[in-house]
Design a protein that fits this description.
By secondary structure, the chain is of the alpha+beta class. Helix content is 37%, strand content 21%.
């Protein structure tokens, strides 16, 4: 809270500068999670170096790919901005990852542009993956999807009749949390499978969509 108070004090020094267009979001947040095998046996110094590497890469981003075209963005100055980085272990998967909270106003009193900040984070992560020879995040996600699909089908094969309760329980036994989405009548119209910090919609599971809510009982 002391760190956050320091960030608020710095922000307040420059609120008058942006009075015509008030600062609606005082911070920029990131969650950065290398794969387990990539960060295995890392020391705090390793995590610190990785944190600064990520911040530097975000600052380098001058354009992002969005809806099939490249869009120019104003680079951030997070390297010269107050930020707090917390190393956090997920309660379910126990995977270590970083949470970053960055001030919107840098130390020079300029606003860090947050337009398409999620895509900037992806671009920064891609640059780090390339430099370090790590797997591409989308490749990792495809591998996770294939594994989840195999476990979903295995759960269905072991049922003599389908019910959402049994399906959710079977997936839980395999290490996944399944979140159901219901309509006003209480009918399940969609669901999401969670693995650690990653969420996968039913529509992403498999190419034939046999695991979607409206098709899964027939499957």
């Amino acid at each position: 809270m002391g760190m956050w108070s320091e960030m608020e004090l710095h922000l307040d020094r420059y609120r008058h500068k942006y009075a015509r267009k008030p600062i609606d979001k005082p911070a920029i947040t990131f969650e950065v999670s290398p794969a387990v095998e990539e960060s295995e046996n890392w020391s705090l110094e390793d995590w610190s170096r990785f944190c600064w590497e990520f911040v530097h890469e975000v600052d380098k981003v001058a354009h992002v790919e969005y809806t099939g075209r490249y869009i120019k963005v104003k680079p951030t100055n997070l390297t010269n901005t107050q930020f707090v980085a917390g190393l956090h272990r997920d309660s379910e998967s126990s995977i270590l990852h970083l949470h970053l909270l960055c001030n919107r106003i840098d130390m020079m009193g300029n606003m860090n542009d947050a337009r398409l900040i999620g895509l900037r984070a992806v671009a920064a992560a891609d640059a780090i993956n390339l430099r370090r020879g790590w797997k591409d995040p989308m490749e990792i996600r495809r591998e996770h999807v294939a594994m989840i699909v195999r476990d979903c089908m295995d759960a269905l094969r072991n049922m003599d009749r389908f019910s959402w309760e049994r399906y959710v329980d079977a997936m839980f036994q395999k290490g996944f949390a399944t979140e159901l989405r219901r309509d006003g009548k209480g009918e399940v119209v969609g669901y999401t499978v969670r693995m650690g910090n990653s969420h996968f919609k039913a529509s992403e599971l498999g190419t034939d969509r046999k695991l979607m809510a409206r098709k899964i009982e027939r499957t």
